[in-house]
Design goal:
Radius of gyration: 19 Å
Low-confidence stretches: none
Helix content: 25-40%
Mean pLDDT: 96
Number of helices: 11
Number of strands: 13
Shape: globular
């Protein structure tokens, strides 16, 4: 066995301990480098309300805002590569009623610098999902476009609507065509069927969401949205993260062009409160990356307790899928734990290499 695999026993023990201590009810974790998978493991229970159901390698997790990377960002990249859209296209080109949002660019949506409200309860502001974009476009800006980053699900909902216009199909179909299908991610989709889901939040009727998206806006939009809605399991998320760790290549073939991925991983908000590439979250103050991953590492998180992180220099990656919002979103202990895990993984990976 590779000595690095043996050393990752400690990192995995931290995950097992976190589940045991109630940081999250279940966790599926993978550690790898490029196309080499070092370790994968699953701990805990997919559901703890009513009958206890153990999680396994096939358990599907609500990926929450990892949807922004798994689906929306990747579809945008593919449409850019196909010459269907460009980063400096504006909302005014797609929405005639964009008003003071007309000049906001796709680049600003993807870097969260459009000045849009981070969150609007669309389900309370209209009873018609078809009017979601109209509601967002009618809302007040919280800062001038381009001035500063404000992580915004509203921006990604609009981006998803733009992609549907440019791609000529609903977002779930575009994600299947451009991402999940080509990568062989057979257990990843919007609006999943079947069973074996990691449960999320307890509902007023005493049931827990399972296989139904946790994000209220995405649920209001029928389960398909640019900000949330994708479900996946550990095996498929490994496939996706391996592609990123291999510089956009999948099984030796180019999935993303080198030029596109290089463009995506620039820090477009240097010195600001958040470090943002195109879709990707880069290390910055109080970021989820931890202390030891390099400054140009990249990844993303999801509200339900999911995350991916990649070091572009070594190809080291960490996948962590949990259902920390089960049975309640009030459990926020995973925020700190995720950084601790990343520190332990990088320390184990580099120990003795200096």
């Amino acid at each position: 066995m590779d000595s690095r695999m043996e050393r990752f026993d400690y990192a995995l023990s931290l995950v097992e301990e976190a589940v045991r201590d109630g940081v999250c009810p279940s966790a599926a974790v993978a550690i790898g480098q490029g196309d080499t998978l070092f370790r994968k493991a699953v701990y805990g229970n997919a559901c703890v309300i009513g009958s206890t159901v153990p999680a396994n390698l096939e358990t599907r997790y609500d990926m929450a805002s990892l949807t922004k990377i798994l689906s929306t960002t990747m579809v945008a990249f593919r449409l850019i590569e196909e010459g269907r859209i460009r980063l400096y296209d504006t909302l005014g080109a797609f929405f005639p009623n964009a008003g003071d949002k007309s000049g906001i660019t796709l680049f600003q949506l993807m870097t969260h610098t459009g000045g849009l409200n981070p969150f609007l309860p669309l389900y309370s502001l209209t009873n018609d999902p078809a009017k979601a974009a109209e509601v967002i476009l009618a809302s007040e800006l919280i800062s001038p476009p381009g001035a500063e980053p404000h992580y915004s699900c509203m921006g990604y909902i609009l981006l998803g609507k733009v992609l549907e216009q440019a791609g000529g199909a609903p977002l779930d179909q575009l994600a299947q065509k451009y991402v999940f299908g080509p990568l062989g991610m057979k257990n990843t989709c919007y609006r999943p069927a079947g069973d074996n889901f990691a449960a999320t939040e307890l509902q007023p009727d005493g049931s827990c969401l399972s296989g139904l998206v946790h994000d209220e806006n995405a649920r209001f939009l029928g389960g398909v949205s640019g900000n949330a809605g994708v479900f996946s399991n550990l095996e498929d998320t490994i496939i996706f993260t391996t592609m990123l760790a291999c510089g956009g290549r999948h099984q030796g073939e180019a999935f993303l062009s080198t030029a596109m991925l290089k463009k995506a991983l620039v820090n477009y908000t240097p010195g600001m409160e958040e470090s943002r590439g195109l879709g990707f979250h880069l290390p910055g103050p109080s970021s989820f990356h931890g202390d030891l991953f390099p400054a140009d590492s990249f990844g993303h998180t999801g509200f339900t307790g999911t995350s991916i992180l990649v070091d572009p220099h070594t190809g080291l990656y960490v996948v962590l899928l949990t259902n920390r919002v089960h049975p309640s979103r009030e459990n926020v202990r995973q925020t700190r734990f995720r950084s601790l895990l990343h520190n332990a993984v990088m320390a184990e990976f580099t120990r003795g290499s200096l």
